[in-house]
Amino acid sequence: MVYNFNLKIEDFTGIQYGQVFGETVGDAVFGMNARDLNAIRGEDQIVSDDLKELLKSKQNIETMMLIKVKMDTYQGNTQSEENKMRY
């Protein structure tokens, strides 16, 4: 089982949204593997009190991270191409 979740990363310069996929990053963020996190999730997609408490404890914390950025080029209805960063 692997993690797949979104993050909101914020500092004094602004806000970025990113996606986490894999085992090691989720282990570092939550302090447990994906199987253990899934066990406290709750039944039928209802968020358990334990999971709410864990998520609340991970908000507004100071941390250091390395972020991989990918440049995508999109061509819309116009002839110009637009570059967008994907985090």
Mind explaining what this structure looks like?
By secondary structure, the protein is of the alpha+beta class. It has one domain (3-86). The protein is built from 3 helices and 4 strands. The protein has helices at residues 24-30, 34-39, 49-57; strands at 3-11, 14-22, 70-75, 81-86. The protein has a two-stranded antiparallel sheet. A two-stranded antiparallel sheet has the order 3-4. The model has no long low-confidence stretch (mean pLDDT 80).
Protein topology:
Elements: E1 3-11, E2 14-22, H1 24-30, H2 34-39, H3 49-57, E3 70-75, E4 81-86
Antiparallel strand pairs: 1-2, 3-4
The residue fraction in helices comes out at 25-40%
Report Rg: 17 Å
Our count of domains comes out at 1
User: Reading side by side through the largest sheet, how are the strands ordered?
Assistant: 1-2
Percent range for β-strand residues: 25-35%
At a glance:
The chain is an alpha+beta fold and about 90 residues long.
Search tags:
about 90 residues; alpha+beta; about 35% strand; globular
